[in-house]
Amino acid sequence: IFATRHQLDLLNRAKSWYVDATFKLYRQPFTQLLTVNAFVKAVDYVKQVPLVAVFRELLELLPSPALRQVTLDFECAVWKVLRQLLPDVKLLGCVFHWTQALWRKVQELGLQVSYREDRGTHAFIRKVMALPFLSFLKRKDIRPQFQRLQQTANSAPLRHFTDYVSRTWIESNTWPPFSWSVFMQSVRTNNDVEGWQLGLHTRAQGKSQLPMYLLIDLLYKEAKLTSLNVRMVSEKKLRRVQRRRYRQIQAKVFSLWGQYEEGDKTARELLKACSLLVGPRGA
Question: Beta strand pairing status for 90-93 and 45-49?
Answer without folding.
Answer: unpaired
